[in-house]
């Protein structure tokens, strides 16, 4: 893909994220997607990405703003910097209890693009900042 095509793919991905359209997001990733989540294990495959999206949709309502995308010259790698604003809907295992708290934090993602699909997503944010914003501490 050209850098312009890769950029368009990621624009669609982030628009789908903001719309809560996880089916659209899933349509943009490779069957063998490598998905690295912040301070978690790598999830491999589209099915694991689907399970992650189901979990996230149950526990969080999030929106991305202030998105800045960078794509390399051959369109195979990209990086995104953004702000995540959200509401903590349901308690996530090992995290503070949820009661509708809101949060806003900077985050970043890295992407690998192959054959017109997103083949890797690696996301980072400051978990301690998030925990402080929702007014709690992680369970032991």
TrEMBL record:
Gene3D superfamilies associated with the record: 3.10.450.50
Protein name: SnoaL-like domain-containing protein
InterPro entries, per database record: CHP02096, NTF2-like_dom_sf, SnoaL-like
Domain annotation SnoaL-like: ranges: 13-121
